[in-house]
Amino acid sequence: EVQLVESGGGSVQAGESLTLSCATSGFRFEDYAIAWFRQSPGKKREGVATIAGGDGSTFYDDSVKGRVTIAKDNAERTVTLHVNALKLEDTAVYYCAATHAAEVARAKLNRHKGETVRWDYWGRGTQVTVSS
Fold it and tell me: 3-35 pLDDT, tens per residue?
């Protein structure tokens, strides 16, 4: 059974830093891309960062670029998301998701058709609340 379990959320002050963790099981970790998403009340879910399964290459959404670092530990099967200089607008439920590298390649190949990556597995999320 595939499982993704997020942890590390909480209430923090603006300007502080936070590290979220995604613990995984039930699939061949090295073959999967892992992504962090977030969703604020009344807003659509948005991608934050992605780390590839093979070479570990990373991608960051422009809204967080420069403040966020995604990293993975193959031995521990975990992916972390470190966020610096937290802002009020970072308040959201943060989710990690996983999909096979083949799906990422498929979506990349069909990007010109408007296709996006289908994320097959999701965690239940962890709440991050930033206050002033």
Answer: 999 999 999 999 999 999 999 999 999 999 999
Separation of alpha carbons 78 and 48, rounded Å: 17
CB atoms closer than 10 angstroms to residue 101: 16
CB 27 within 8 A of CB 42: no
Length of the chain: 132
Residue 42's DSSP bridge partners are none
- CA 2 to centroid of chain Cα atoms: 16
The phi and psi torsions of 104 (rounded to 5 degrees) equal -65, -40
Q: What is the pLDDT of residues 69-122, one digit of tens each?
A: 999 999 999 999 999 999 999 999 999 999 999 999 989 888 999 989 999 999
